[in-house]
Specification:
Shape: globular
Number of helices: 14
Helix content: 25-40%
CATH architecture of one domain: 3-Layer(aba) Sandwich
Low-confidence stretches: 1-6, 34-44, 402-409
Order of helices and strands: EHEEHEHEHEHEHEHEHEHHEHEEHEHH
CATH superfamily of one domain: P-loop containing nucleotide triphosphate hydrolases
Largest sheet: 6 strands, mixed
Strand order of the largest sheet: 2-3-1-4-5-6
CATH class of one domain: Alpha Beta
Oligomer: single chain
Radius of gyration: 24 Å
């Protein structure tokens, strides 16, 4: 399963083997996007399917393995299915033949523990309709939407779509602004975007594209240049930008070039505010100055990518951290949304990437074990700003403070 690759709302399909999960996905999509078979266990690992749902828009559906799988391999599949709970915004629990046992009860418990909204779909109603007494008991016990449905004859597909729309949390598809609340009509925003080995040929990296779109959506004007052209632009800029946004890697250059009366921040910090745990980042970032030699640092990348010889997370941040503190650390890097290889309490600090490729819920769930354990968390851009001595200025556009070092140090 490819994780951490899509920021659209995620819907997880859960239930026993051969219960009709894949058939339900095909009914929702209106085409055969999932493999259907009478053989139990056809779906082994969670599989993502991108589809469009009327009046909701593009979503990602995760087809999971049966929760009643058996054997050593089956236990691993069930583990992967439960892992998917942290990645979805809405769960659909699929039942059939009026059976609702311990497997389903345990799943509902998992949904509640994860604060995950869910609905119960009794499928294969063309073979056996849902018993009225079962529907009544489930409604009373779980207070969740319930629907009797047939993927073979989906006459009430509109009802299923309505349940998905109404149960999906609004936060999963209503995004916070990146810079829209910081600018007014006609304002100019300066974007400083290095073109280096990590920038895809012929394209810009996703956070840069997202910020450009957000500025345009909010009736602003974008000026885009590389770091080498900033000085030339500053000499002639008219009108003066209300905000400058830089790639974190060239923070020192941007800080020196951009006049102090122009607010300056980074793409990564903007993402941190939009979808990260910004309040805990603000608390955690200053703890970088309290690290001791021998501490173990966890760096979380939310996607997988080609690793360059000067990779930002694997090479530059550890180097800057050692240079800033004069100390040595053990650094672990985990890509995607997979499990961390050791107890979270082994770490003195967690540094999370911007998370441009994942949902807000996925990112918050990724950080939750560290936050719950009281381990400081920060973000690439905020950590880089701290390590280069420009942290107060970098967060000032969002905190309402002046950016004076005394406010934060």
């Amino acid at each position: 399963m490819k994780r951490g690759r899509d920021s659209k709302p995620h819907i997880g399909i859960f239930g026993r083997r051969n219960i009709g999960k894949s058939s339900l996905i095909n009914a929702i999509a209106g085409q055969d996007v999932a493999i259907v078979s009478d053989i139990a266990g056809t779906t082994t690992d969670p599989v993502k399917k991108s589809i469009e749902i009327p009046q909701l828009g593009p979503v990602v559906i995760i087809d999971t393995a049966g929760i009643d799988d058996t054997g050593e391999l089956g236990e691993k599949r069930i583990f992967k299915t439960r892992e998917a709970l942290a990645q979805v915004d809405l769960a659909l629990l699929i039942i059939a033949n009026n059976a609702f046992g311990d497997a389903e009860k345990n799943l509902v418990g998992d949904f509640k523990n994860a604060a995950l909204p869910y609905a119960i779909i009794h499928t294969k109603s063309d073979e056996e309709k849902a018993d009225d007494n079962l529907i009544r008991v489930l409604k009373e016990r779980y207070n969740a939407p319930i629907l009797d449905f047939s993927s073979v004859n989906p006459v009430n597909l509109d009802d299923l779509i309505r349940i998905i729309r109404e149960t999906m949390p609004e936060s999963s598809y209503t995004k916070r602004p990146l810079v829209g609340d910081l600018i007014s009509y006609g304002d100019t925003v300066l974007l400083i975007t290095p073109i280096d080995i990590e920038a895809p040929e012929g394209r810009m990296i996703l956070p840069q594209v997202q910020v450009i779109r957000d500025v345009l959506d909010n009736d602003g004007i974008c000026v885009v240049c590389k770091e080498r052209e900033v000085d030339t632009y500053v000499k002639n800029m008219q009108p003066k930008p209300v905000l400058a946004i830089t790639d974190s890697q060239v923070f020192p250059k941007a800080d020196a070039a951009i006049p102090k009366d122009i607010p300056l921040t980074s793409f990564s910090i903007i993402l941190a505010r939009q979808k990260g745990d910004f309040e805990n980042y603000l608390k955690g970032t200053p703890k970088l100055g309290e690290l001791k030699s021998g501490d173990r640092i966890l760096i979380l990348e939310s996607c997988t990518h080609h690793v360059s010889c000067d990779d930002i997370g694997r090479v530059k941040i550890p180097r800057w951290l050692s240079n800033f503190t004069g100390k040595t650390f053990s650094v672990d890097v985990v890509s995607g949304l997979g499990a961390v290889g050791r107890p979270i309490t082994d770490y003195a600090m967690v540094i999370q990437c911007g998370g441009c490729m994942i949902t807000r819920k996925q990112l918050l769930n990724r950080l939750k074990p560290a936050v719950d354990a009281g381990i400081p968390v920060t973000n690439y851009g905020m950590a880089i700003a701290w390590l280069h001595g420009i942290y107060p200025r970098a967060i000032a556009p969002f905190t309402g403070k002046t950016g004076d070092k005394g406010d934060y140090l």
